[in-house]
Design goal:
Layout: H1 3-16, H2 20-43, H3 47-66, H4 75-95, H5 98-121
Helix pairs in contact: 2-3, 2-5, 3-4, 4-5
């Protein structure tokens, strides 16, 4: 099996066998990755690359919004933060604004790090 196919199979298996907590962490990591790629696109004046990766980041935030559970007290807080990030991403996309994306990255990294800590405190697998 050629190396790219092996890598794709490994990643597919990693997702299929991940717990919900691990999937959430993967989504945060993906959003951070795509936001970073969008920043690189802006820096390199590659408007399409920036646009495509901002949209990918938005799709992940939309998934977080869709999967919020209203039965938890923090539901509304997370909903507000995710809506705020969506507005900022849309603004960054229209303006191709690196500083806005860096702000979004700061929030995403903080949320990811908090999620990792929650996973550790609850004895969930953290890679």
């Amino acid at each position: 099996m050629p190396l790219p196919n092996a890598y794709a199979a490994y990643n597919r298996n990693k997702v299929l066998t991940a717990s919900p907590a691990e999937l959430t962490l993967m989504l945060y990591e993906g959003a951070i990755k795509f936001c970073n790629i969008a920043i690189i696109g802006i820096e390199n004046k590659d408007i399409e690359k920036a646009h495509v990766n901002i949209i990918k980041t938005e799709k992940i935030i939309e998934e977080f919004l869709r999967t919020l559970d209203e039965k938890y007290p923090v539901y509304k807080d997370f909903e507000n933060v995710y809506h705020y990030l969506m507005r900022r991403l849309q603004e960054a996309n229209v303006r191709k604004d690196k500083e806005i994306l860096e702000e979004v990255l700061t929030h995403l990294r903080g949320m990811r790090d908090t999620w990792k800590e929650v996973m550790k405190q609850n004895n969930m697998h953290v890679s």
